[in-house]
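Write out the 3D structure for:
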Amino acid sequence: MPNFTNNQKSNGKLTTAVDGTDIKILNALQANARISNADLAELVNLSQTPCLRRLRKLEQSGLIQQYTTCLDHSLLGINVSAFVFIKLSKNTSSKAAEFEAAITQFPEILECCVLAGVHDYALRIVTKNLQTFGSFLKDKLANVEQVENIESTIILNQTITQHSPQLSPNYLEV
């Protein structure tokens, strides 16, 4: 899978200027990453060559990290989604790194976020059913050495799914 990131980011900020046309390109790609360059160019009122040039610039800047496919979990028989909150036995840099390395082997984990507060991590987990969710918690996650406490919340219904915000022309202004 292509990863377009390079060294043009500085201190977490984009070093390449992004204008209204770039934002139109980004919004179009968020809606349909498979849009043809011809259709994209027409949508943003550019000819194809400048449109492709802008797209490559956005990829090389690191603003576009990758193109992915979103799957319908229910059609795959994945019917349980949950947030799982983890408290480590000792939250040191080395223990956190060991935990993060240990959980990479679990395909049930879609996301892992480091938290500040009561819990050290929030995981987004998917499994086929409640039985496999329980097995995942007891047989896999609870056996990770660094884990002290596990709390979970089952997601009943996901009403909004966005991977990035819809951008407006002034969104990236400082």
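The helical segments are 20-31, 37-43, 48-61, 93-103, 130-140.
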